[in-house]
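Fold it.
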Amino acid sequence: MGMMDSVRRALVAAGLAIALGAVQAQPARSIVVASTTSTEQSGLFSHLLPAFTRATGIEVKVVAVGTGQALDIGRRGDADAVFVHDQAAEEKFVAEGFGVERLPVMFNDFVVVGPHSDPAGIKGSDLNSALGKLAASQASFVSRSDNSGTHSAELRYWRAAGITAPGARGMAYRECGCGMGPALNIASAAPG
């Protein structure tokens, strides 16, 4: 494990402790955390939550869904904490009184993944240029299309690249309505 991995794990652990610290102020035997699928699928919770439970006696149930669904669960009061990744939606959630405070815990990188042969010629391009090349090509693009933070970011990036309807430009734009892992599996199985 590299130094950056150690730093990231320490920051995530500290963020988890801070975020869940407000929850533990009230005696509870268990709490519900609505989280993104990618955070849950990363193995982060299975690594951190046993230590949290040992330290506090509080069991944590994680409900892994897209960011939009996680925030909806929080709005209904069915979650004690939310771990999502759509800053604008998070700030709105807090401003509307559904959350107490927004704390940055992790960060995302948006990476376009494709075959080694790079049929759209995007390798080394900045994101806006890469998306423009993808939209102009016959290449395939798999979108999560699941109301997740990743999907919201994707749509913002398409708009920033001047593309409002990526599928309307001849590109094979595939909407899977699924999490990150399944989207990547679909993309890797697509002809390249």
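The radius of gyration is 19 Å.
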